[in-house]
Amino acid sequence: MKEKILKIFKIIVFTILLLVCVVGVYNVLAWKDTSGEYLSTMKQLYATPNNKIDAVFVGSSHVYCGVYPAKLWQDQGISGFNMAVSGMDKQSAYYDVVELLKTQKPKVICVDLYPSTFEEHDDQGNVYRNYLSKRLSKNAVDHVNSYIPREERSDYIFRFPIVHTRYKELQKYDFIPYEFNRYGRGDTYSDRIQETYFDESVVYNEETPEITESNREWVDKFAELSAQKGFALEFMLVPYRYTVNERLSLNSTIAYINEKGIPVTDYSRKMADIGFDGMQDFIDDGHLNNTGAEKYTEALMNDVLSKYDIPNHSGEKGYELWEEDHHWYDRKRIQAGLNATQDGYLYMTKLADLDEAVSIISLEYNYADESLGYFGMFEPLGMSYEEFSTGGKWIYADGVLTKISENDPAGQPFIYEINNRDSFRVMYRGDFNQENISLNKEAVMPAGYNVTVVTYDLFLEEILENRGF
Amino acid sequence: MVFNSTQFLIFFPIVVLVYLIIPKRVRYIWLLAASYYFYMCWNKKYIVLILFSTIVTYAAGLLIEKAESVKVKKWIIAGGFTLNLGVLFFFKYFDFALLNLNRVLSILHIEAVDDPFNFLLPVGISFYTFQALGYMIDVYRGDCKAIRNPFKYALFVSFFPQLVAGPIERSKNLISQIESMDTKFLMSFDRITKGFAMMVWGMFMKMVIADRAAIFVDNIFEYTYALGTFDGIAGALGFAVQIYCDFGGYSAIALGAAAIMGFDLMENFNTPYFATGIADFWRRWHISLSTWFRDYLYIPLGGNRCSKLKKYRNVMITFLVSGLWHGAAWNYVVWGGLHGFYQIVEDLISPVKEKAEKALRIKTDNFSYKFGNILVTFAFTCFAWIFFRAPSFSEALHYIKRMFTNYNPWILFNDDIFRFGLDIKEMSILIAAVALLLIADIIRYVKGLNPGEFLYKQNLWFRWAVLIILVVVILVYGEYGIDFDSNSFIYFDF
User: Where are the domains of chain A?
Assistant: First the structure.
C-alpha cells in the first residue's frame, strides 16, 4: 500500500513539475504584439486592482489612438481605461467587455462603432491580437468559438500550436515583463502628422440600408449586458476616413441604436464642433495623433462622461496606476516637446529643466567655430567658455554637467551604467562616428553633427531624444 | 486522428482513465469502442471494411479449427485470403492495375478504360488485413487457438495503438494478452513509466525530426530538375532520417500507448541504420512486416532450404511483394526489387569477400570493419530510398542521373543548402535532434535498451529531467499547428 501511495505521489509531483515547466515556457512564447512594442491592453487590465475603473473605451486602433485616459485623469481625476485592440472585431469587443466585468464595475462603457463595419479580419496579426491575449477561461473559449473556424479552435484554445514557432523571434520582453503593461491604462502618444482630407459627401451620406443580422445581434448583446451588469452603455464613432460602404453600414447601425434608445455619438460628423483640423490632428487616414486625441478626449469628457456621476479619484489611495500612467504621459509630452524644438538654446533650456534623465553631449569637429554659434546653446547647462572650448564628451545628470573624455582616439571608452540593463559607452573613434555614443551595443549618436545630445529617460527606460546640431 | 494531434492528447488520457476505473471484465469492450472511435475519426464509412475483415477472419478461424480435413482447412484459408486480399486489391491496387492496363491498351491503340471508382485509400488497410490474415494462418498451423469471443477478436484486429500503421502483431503475442484482460491487471507503474517515455520519444522523432526533415526533403524532390550531386545526396540522407523517424516515431508511440494500458507490442525497429548488411537491415527495419513476409511468404515458398537459384527466386518474390505492399506504384516495386537484388548480391559475393579479406589480412573483429560495413549498407539503403520517395519511377531515375552528372560541391559552402526550406537555425535544430537520436540508437545498439527501458533504469532526477526537457522541446520545436501542413505518418498510406 505504502509503495502504491509513493508511486501515485511520484506521478502527481512529476505532473506538477511538467506543468510548471510547460507554463513557464508558454509565458515566454505567449503571443505578444511585437509590432506594437509588446503592448497589451489585456495585460494592463489584469494588472488593475478590482473595482477601480469607472469609464471604459472599447474598440480598435482608432480608439487606442483617439482616447487618452491619462488626460481624463489629469483633467478630472477619472479612472478611465482604454481597452482597445488593433482591428478589434464585434465578437472581441463583446467578450473583452465580459472579461473586464469579471473584476471591474465601470459606470460607463463607450463602444466604438468601427467593428460594425466589417465581418472578417483581413489581417492575421489582428486575429492573434484579439484572440490570444486573454487568460484561459470559459469566456476566452466562448470568444474563440464565436469567430474562429471549428477546425482551428483547439489551436486558439491551447495556443501552443500557434505560438510555439515564436522561438525564432524571441526578444528581451519575452523574458522580462514589459513595464508599461503593468501600469499603462491603454494610453499611447504619437506626434506624427499626416494631412488628412474628408469627403463630405461620404461623411454626410444619409442612405440607411437594413442593418445586418450580425450588427443587430451585436448591439442587442451589448444592450443585454448593460442591463444585466448595470453599466451605462454608450456607442461612439472616433473620426476616421471611412469608405461609402462603411458609412452606410454605420448609418444602419446608428439608426438601430437610436431605435433602441441607447446613446450614440458620431464624432465624425462633429469634427468642426470639436475643432478638429485635418491638417494637424491625424497620424494617418484612420488615426488621431496627440493633438487630435487630446481634443477628442476632451469632447468625450464634456459630451459623454459628464452625463454620469463619475467621481474624481485624484490623490486617492488605490489609484497609483493612473498616477504612474499620467507620469508616463508627461514624459511622452516632454519627448514630443524636445522633438519639436529646433532652436539649440531652447532645447538646452528644456534639457536643463528635465529631471529623471541622463544626457551625453558630444562636441566634435567644427564645434568651436564661432560663426556657428554653438557655445551660446550651452548657457542653460552652465557650461563656461573655457569648458566648451576643450570639446570632448560630457554627461549631464541631476543638473550637473561633467566632462568625461577628450576626443582622443587612444582614450579608454567611458562606461556609464544607467540601470541594471542599460549602459552608455562613450568614446572617440573619429569625428561623426556614430559609435562614439552607444547604448548597450547600439550606436546612437546622430552622424554628421558637430554637437550631439543623446538623452536617456530614467522613467521610460529608453532613449528620449537623440539630436544633432 | 493522428497521434500528434490535440484530439489524441484528449482522447488517450480519457481512454486510459476509463480503462483504469471500469471492471476488468468489460475492459476489452471499452478498448474496442475506443479503437473503433479512433478509426472513425478519420473516416466513418471505412469502419465497415474493418468489420468485414474481422467477421471473415473470425469465422474462418472458427471453421478452420472445426474442420477435420486439411483440404477443407485449405479451402477456408483460400476463401479468407481471397475475400481479404480482394478488398485490399479493390481499394489499394485497382487504380494501379487499371493504369497499367490502359498503358498496354494504348500501345495496342485500344481505347482506355475509365476508372469507375474513385475511392480514398482506407488508412491502415494493409496493416490490419495482414494482421488478420496472419491470425488465420496461425490457427491453420495450430500455432494459436481460434478466439471464441468475437469482441475480443475484433479488438485484436483493431487495437487502436497499432491499427493504422502497425506493428503488425502476431496472434500468439497480442491475443494471449487480450484473452487475459478479464483476469489479470495488466497496467503497472513500470509499464506506465516506460510507455510514457516511449510515447514522448516517438513524438520527438516524429514532430521534431521527421516533420522538420520532411520540409527539406520535399523541397529537394520538388526541384529535381535543378538537382546536383550534393543536394541529391542531402535529399536521400534527409529522407532516410525522415522515414526512420516518421515510422520509428509512430511505432514508439504505439508501443508506448499500448504499454501504458499494459500491453506489450513487438518492437518494429532496432537501430536499422547500424545494420552491417542488407539482410541485417531487414532484421532491424519494420521487423513486424519483414518477419510476417518471412513466416507467411518466404518460408512457404521454400525459404532457403532449396537450391540457390530457388532461394534467390524466393528472395526476389518476397521483396517485390513487399515493395508492392508499400504502395501501388512501380517505384515501390523497384525499391523492393532493389533490396532483393542487394540481398542476392550480398549472398553471392560473400565467399569472395571473405577470401579477399583473408588474402588482404583485413581484420574483421574491430570497430573500423564494422563501421565500414555500416556505412556501405547505409549508402545502399539511402540510394534505394530515392525510388521510395520519388513521385514516380521516371523521376527517381532523373534524380539519380542529376546526382551523377551535376557535380556541385559549392552548395555546401555558399548557403545554397539552406534554400530548401530550412534556414540555418532550423537546420541546426534538425542536426542537434538527429545527434540526440544517434545517441539513443547507440545506447540501443550497445546496451539493447530502447529509450523507455533506458530511462527507466536511470535515477529519478535524470529520468524526469530528460522527459520534461523532451516534452518542452517537442512543444517548442515540434512541427505542428497553424500554417503547418502536418504530414500524416508516412506509413498510414500503406
Answer: 1-25, 31-331, 342-468
The reported pTM is 0.86
pLDDT digits (tens, 9 = 90+) for A192-217: 999 999 999 999 999 999 999 999 99
Is residue B494 predicted with pLDDT exceeding 60?
no
What DSSP assignment string belongs to A78-129?
Answer: --EEEEE-TT--HHHHHHHHHHHHTT---SEEEEESGGGG-SS-S-HHHHHH
Nearest CA in chain A to B461: A14
Which residue in A10, A154, A165 is closest to B6 by CB distance?
A154
Q: Where are the domains of chain B?
A: 6-186, 191-493
Q: Which residues of B are less than 8 Å from A162 in CB distance?
A: 481-482
d(CA B100, CA B42): 30
Measure CB to CB from residue A161 to each of B7, B467, B482 and give the nearest one.
B482
CATH of A31-331, one of 3.40.50.1400, 3.40.350.10, 3.40.50.720, 3.40.50.1110: 3.40.50.1110
What pLDDT was estimated at residue B177?
A: 92
Q: Is B286 a catalytic residue?
A: no
Q: Is B475's CB within 8 Å of A158's CB? A: no
Give me the interface pTM, i.e. the ipTM.
0.82
Tens of pLDDT, residue by residue over A330-385, are: 999 999 999 999 999 999 999 999 999 999 999 999 998 888 889 999 999 999 99
d(CA A109, CA A305): 10
SS3 A232: strand
Q: B109, B326, B339, B398: which one is catalytic?
A: B326
